[in-house]
Design a protein that fits this description.
heterodimer, A: alpha/beta, globular, B: alpha/beta, 2 domains, 66% helix, 6% strand, ABC2_TM_bact-type (chain B), ABC-2_transporter_component (chain B)
């Protein structure tokens, strides 16, 4: 197997007394989709930011594409979609795409064709020249995803990508993610929508900064002897609480 | 390349925000016009003075173009008369003693009255002196006449006695009293001319202040918006350098600052016909440097604000004191510790340079000291900003 796209080793992080991540390890090879699931405040976003090199970790290492983070050059190969829509509201969608495309190092005709392509993927072609301030929440989410895809990155890191997106478009987006996966891209998705979790090749359950379980959806269901990922999640949480009270 | 992308974005965002554009380009013109009319006629204020039982010669002496005298009865009460007739002062004379009551609600009026009073009293003294000299002269002449007659009688007597003592006493006021020199005053102005007003003197400083204030506020708030909306974090998830972001901001808002300065300077020069001795280019350069300081300072300060409201709270703290030390109030007469304090404000150097260039015709070399310090301010804040962005991304 080739080198993993993401390789996280024993990462720990605390904000003051609040432990956010405890000895988390994770690796994601090319051509796979990994889902990070867990309740809000579990440390998903912190882990994502640590992988991007935007959050300082207390111990452990994160390596992306064989390069230890933080590294500015590697950013060019990562498509990142933040949890909150970080868009310039006074600009049009096209101007937003163009701006972030230029920052990612895409230029000229390549950028123009890339904009056309990603707009198609997220179904925004008709609305490209409207100002973002006139966009609905779902449209903004889609534009954020389009921005993450603009530089045709090897690795996609999507923080809650489908919040506020209607089921039909969600299907469409997942279909696109599958296509990207088949082209050898690695995708890391955080979510708390359980049916999305089922679509991932691999899952990692995070709760209170601890990786509770890791494996394919089928493996996890077997391991916990339950029917759905939701039940895996609940059972794992209960077990964690029992362990705590034992101590 | 990435810097250009950021510059383009900043320009585009600004152009879309018509109100902010108007604030930057039209508000200074509005305030300048207002100040122009406010400070145009600063020499025509007239103080109303009430007099009671005052010697008419003194009343005459008190009259000048800044005073308006009105006589009141001998027993008029000073306080009530001042209140009733809105006087600046009330003067009462009794037994050769003057009692002056000032209203003092307008210290400038009080100063006018004091000036008139001092001038009037001096005038009277001089008149009295001249009168006294004249009386003395008359007395002397009379004495001389008497002396002459006495001597003539004596001479007759001596002649009669046959003695030839050929002494002639010539006692006479041969020295004519010198006429009071009639001075004609020709005034030359080193800087400006006789029409120079408060406005002319402070216009350059005002220009600098506008640039500083608007650029500080707009750049600070726009970077704050980037922080609060998460676009700054998003920006730093691309391979952009931290320095490129700050440079993009400096260039983007720098362009607006230059346009703003050009508009205000052109407006002042053409509409108000303000005299500017030094080079207009130098004025633009100083304003540009001030804008750079304001930009980097605004961006730096926005780090300490969590909302636009908190950003505005820095205005009384950081902007208002700068006005005091920009040269509008003479710094040389301030207490030592205030003079020392003045040196920490960028507008102190900017105001100094602008005033010297505009009203004294200083050249680039003459103000280079101020300019270097402004540049240093800009460089230090810019460096702090680049380092400060590490909070969002470690590289």
């Amino acid at each position: 197997m080739t080198q993993p796209m993401i390789d996280v080793r024993d990462v720990a992080k605390r904000f003051g007394d609040n432990v956010v991540l405890k000895q988390i390890s994770l690796d994601l090879p090319a051509g796979r989709v990994m889902g990070l699931i867990g309740p809000s405040g579990a440390g998903k976003t912190t882990l994502v930011k640590a992988i991007l090199g935007m959050e300082k970790v207390d111990s452990g290492t994160t390596t992306v594409l064989g390069t230890e983070m933080p590294n500015r050059q590697i950013m060019q190969k990562i498509g990142y979609m933040a949890q909150s829509d970080a868009l310039y509201e006074t600009l049009t969608a096209r101007e937003n795409l163009r701006f972030f495309g230029e920052l990612m190092g895409v230029a000229g005709p390549a950028l123009t064709s890339s904009i056309t392509h990603v707009a198609q993927v997220v179904n925004l072609t008709e609305m490209l020249d409207r100002r973002v301030s006139a966009y609905s929440g779902g449209m903004k989410r889609r534009l954020s995803l389009a921005i993450a895809l603009i530089a045709d990155p090897d690795l996609l890191i999507l923080d809650e990508p489908t919040v506020g997106i209607d089921p039909e478009l969600r299907q469409q987006i997942w279909a696109e993610l599958r296509t990207l996966k088949q082209h050898g891209k690695a995708i890391l998705v955080t979510t708390h929508v359980m049916d999305e979790a089922e679509r991932c090749d691999e899952l990692m359950l995070i709760r209170e900064g601890i990786a509770l379980a890791q494996g394919t959806p089928a493996d996890l269901k077997r391991e916990y002897t339950v029917e759905t990922i939701e039940q895996v999640f609940l059972k794992a949480g209960r077990l964690q609480d029992e362990n705590h009270s034992d101590r | 390349m990435r810097t250009i992308a950021i510059v383009k974005r900043v320009l585009r965002e600004m152009l879309r925000d018509k109100r902010t554009l108007a604030l930057m380009f039209i508000a200074p013109l509005f305030i300048l016009s207002l100040m122009y009319f406010l400070f145009q006629n600063n020499s025509t204020s007239v103080a109303k003075i009430g007099v009671s039982n005052v010697n008419t010669s003194l009343v005459k002496a008190l009259k000048n173009k800044h005073t308006d005298l009105a006589a009141y009865g001998d027993h008029a009460n000073a306080k009530t008369t001042i209140r009733q007739h809105n006087l600046a002062a009330f003067i009462h004379e009794q037994d050769g003693k003057l009692t002056v009551t000032y209203s003092n609600s307008q210290p400038s009026d009080t100063a006018l009255v004091k000036q008139a009073l001092q001038g009037g009293v001096t005038k009277l003294k001089v008149q009295a002196l001249v009168a006294a000299t004249k009386t003395q002269k008359r007395v002397l002449q009379q004495q001389a006449k008497v002396l002459k007659t006495v001597m003539a009688q004596q001479q007759k007597l001596q002649a009669a006695q046959g003695t030839t003592r050929g002494q002639t006493a010539t006692v006479g006021a041969t020295t004519k009293p010198k006429a009071a020199p009639n001075y004609t005053v020709t005034s030359h102005y080193l800087y400006g001319n006789a029409d120079s007003t408060f406005f002319d003197t402070f216009l350059p400083v005002l220009l600098g202040f506008f640039v500083f204030f608007f650029v500080f506020l707009i750049s600070g708030i726009s970077l704050l918006n980037e922080r609060t909306t998460g676009t700054l974090t998003r920006l730093l998830a691309t391979p952009v350098r931290r320095g490129e972001i700050i440079t993009g901001y400096l260039v983007g808002y720098g362009i607006f600052a230059v346009i703003q300065t050009i508009i205000t300077v052109t407006f002042a020069l053409t509409v108000f016909n303000v005299h500017m001795l030094g080079s207009v280019w130098l004025i633009l350069l100083i304003n540009f440097l001030l804008a750079m300081v304001a930009l980097s300072m605004g961006i730096f300060i926005s780090t300490f604000a969590n909302s636009e409201f908190q950003m505005v709270q820095f205005i009384p703290l950081l902007i208002v004191p700068q006005v005091f030390f920009s040269g509008i109030i003479t710094i040389a007469t301030m207490p030592d510790w205030l003079q020392w304090l003045a040196h920490i404000f960028p507008l102190y150097y900017g105001g100094d340079a602008l005033m010297n260039v505009a009203t004294r015709g200083f050249s680039l070399g003459d103000v280079s000291g101020d300019l270097w310090i402004l540049l240093l301010f800009a460089v230090v804040f810019t460096a702090l900003n680049v380092v400060g962005l590490k909070r969002y991304r470690r590289v």
